[in-house]
Specification:
By secondary structure, the protein is of the alpha/beta class. The termini are far apart. The radius of gyration is 19 Å and the shape is globular. The chain has a 9-stranded mixed sheet, sandwiched between helices.
């Protein structure tokens, strides 16, 4: 699924803003993903660089849709002013990279599993190819962190299973178990309308109880697989092959921190708990917020990320 990961053959990099403390630039390149939807090219990456010596790198992954991007741009500004280069890639299917005829964020959850799978694949390929490019250009610091919010946090699990390039990862407001998300998450009500209209029938998704039973049986089989390749070549449900739960066992638990909102209604509690368990029960921080109410007060999270980066290599 991820064979297209490689250093892009060409790219452009130009300044958008030069301030007293930071410089903001935009990096663009054609995606190396061979099945990219029309409208999702080129890859766009915003880079917020400190003018003084760079003390680390943080890659910030957005949630579904476009609204949260503006808040994460603020976080990128905050990090760069404290000596951390912030890298904010726009995910395919979101913000300025929406596929023709679609809307921001919609294609990551769909009854069209082939299309849904392509967007998850595309995001992973773009991000891993981006890291390869940054490393080749000496733009990826040895002290680094991956920060993923919501959708970005789910994708962060896949990235950690496929790459050792991320020293620390903060997964914020994310969950697993796509069967429960499809049928229980308020955010995905549009998917349930499609399911009730008969779409997804070929994947056994239209009958809630039957789908849950099938998915649960395949979740139990995850322990059988000794590699990601073995898991992907198996006959488990195709939706599970892009579910963070299927990749969690291949992630180094010591590199992960999970931040969970105590009043999160967008992600059912069971989906957050099961991801935490499958990741080996990493450090978990619970905050008194909803799924989105933390965004205006993200300075606390940003400070924590700065500490995670700067403390790397320091013996306690």
């Amino acid at each position: 699924m991820f064979e297209d990961v490689r250093i892009p053959s060409g790219y452009s990099l130009g300044y958008l803003h030069r301030g007293k403390k930071i410089r903001v630039s935009i990096l663009k390149f054609e995606s190396t993903y061979s099945r990219a939807e029309k409208g999702t090219n080129p890859v766009e990456v915003y880079i917020f660089s400190p003018k003084r010596k760079k003390q680390g790198s943080v890659m910030i992954l957005q949630g579904l849709g476009s609204q949260n991007v503006l808040y994460l741009i603020w976080m990128a500004h905050y990090l760069s002013k404290r000596g951390i280069e912030a890298i904010l890639p726009i995910l395919p299917g979101n913000f300025t990279r929406v596929a023709e005829g679609s809307v921001s964020g919609k294609d990551y959850f769909s009854t069209d599993l082939d299309k849904m799978t392509r967007f998850w694949e595309h995001a992973v390929v773009d991000l891993l190819s981006l890291v390869e490019l940054l490393k080749a250009k000496n733009m990826w610091h040895e002290k680094n962190c991956l920060f993923g919010y919501c959708l970005g946090g789910m994708i962060a699990v896949l990235l950690n299973a496929l790459s050792d390039d991320f020293k620390k990862t903060v997964i914020m407001m994310a969950g697993g178990d796509f069967a429960t998300l499809f049928w229980k998450s308020p955010t995905l009500s549009f998917v349930r309308r499609e399911l009730r209209s008969g779409k997804g029938k070929e994947h056994g998704m239209t009958e809630e109880d039957t789908f849950f039973e099938l998915y649960r049986k395949d979740l139990e089989r995850l322990s059988e697989f000794s590699s990601i390749r073995e898991m992907l070549s198996s006959d488990i449900h195709s939706l599970l092959k892009i579910d963070p739960l299927a990749y969690a066992k291949f992630v180094d638990t010591s590199r992960i921190v999970m931040i969970e909102a105590m009043f999160d209604k967008a992600l059912p509690k069971s989906t957050r708990k099961i991801l935490w368990e499958h990741l080996g029960k990493p450090r978990r921080i619970k905050v008194p917020s909803s799924h989105v109410s933390w965004l205006p007060f993200q300075m606390i999270v940003a400070r924590y990320v700065v500490k995670l980066v700067k403390d790397q290599g320091v013996k306690n």
